[in-house]
Amino acid sequence: MVTTVELQNPMEYSLWVSIIAGLLIILAAAFFLYFIIRLILQKNKKAEKKPAVPVTPKPIASYLVKDRYIRRVRDIKDQYKRKAIGIREGYQELSAVIREFVHEETGINVESLTAAEIKERGIGNLSRLMEEYYVPEFAENEKIRGKDLPRSCDTAEEVIRSWN
Fold first, then answer.
1. Chain centroid to CA 133: how far?
2. Hey, is 57 helix, strand or coil?
3. What does each of the 164 residues of the chain score in pLDDT, given as a tens digit?
4. 113: Cα separation from own chain's centroid
């Protein structure tokens, strides 16, 4: 008995195989893109939720806090004019008052930071004030000459008053 076998053309089923393989590749790429986009969106949402600088909520009566610190600055100015304190003492007290104010308003402990560290953080006008006060706080008496404590007190009042 003779058996004959008819061989099929090798390219006869290749169209269906190619279509199915193409659909599977497209489906895999779609899932991959979906998860990548979803991951990116989740990272963006997390980044939006985190504040750059940890900030404690301001008290409802922030103007009362500002008023209290302005009075303390004016008291330093009055003491200096009455010659109850010297210029170095005045600048040291003024620096302490400003640092306490910023700590109370922002929650950031700036009382132990140097002027350079404050400048790095970019906290409002504090770095400008600290540069103005730094030399009179720690310099020799010759370098203090020409510094105007009452004018510095006025500047500090302006900063406190305009603090957001």
1. 24
2. coil
3. 788 887 766 666 667 778 888 999 999 999 999 999 999 888 877 766 655 555 555 555 577 888 999 999 999 999 989 999 887 788 888 888 888 888 888 787 877 777 677 777 776 666 666 666 665 555 555 555 667 778 888 888 888 888 76
4. 16
Do residues 56 and 105 make contact, with C-beta atoms less than 8 angstroms apart?
no
Burial letters for 107-141: b for 16+ Cβ neighbours within 10 Å, e otherwise?
ebebeebebeebeeeebbbbbebbebbbebbeeee
Number of C-beta neighbours around residue 85 at 10 A? 17
Question: Three-class SS of residue 111?
Answer: coil
Please, are residues 90 and 149 in contact by the beta-carbon 8 Å criterion? yes
Residues across the chain: 164
